[in-house]
Design brief:
Helix content is 81%, strand content 0%. By secondary structure, it is mainly α.
């Protein structure tokens, strides 16, 4: 992100989220079906990811590494929510194309 606009990063994350839905819907149809049933669950994923990273840092790294993570947590969260939005948009598009 050094020389990249933050909006480009968010746009890219949305595209990655859409791609992740496409991959999951073909690789793990059952998992994708769970998200189709309750599509707002997608927005819980960033919380799970951030918690997992934080716990992993506390367990495997130093406190300094964890504190660095905490400093960037807000930015990481916004980027992860952008990814979730891309996943959600792809999910909604698939639901419109193939109603349950």
């Amino acid at each position: 992100m050094n020389r990249t606009s933050f909006w480009i990063v968010l746009s890219y994350q949305r595209k990655l989220g859409g791609g992740a839905y496409f991959y999951r819907s073909h690789d793990s149809p059952g998992q994708a079906h769970s998200f189709r049933a309750i599509s707002s669950l997608v927005f819980l994923l960033p919380f799970v990811v951030m918690l997992s990273i934080g716990l992993s840092l506390l367990h495997r790294r130093t406190v300094v590494d964890f504190l660095r993570f905490v400093l960037f947590l807000a930015v990481c969260f916004v980027v992860n929510m952008s990814w979730a939005r891309g996943f959600y948009d792809a999910l909604r598009k698939a639901n419109r194309s193939h109603p349950q």
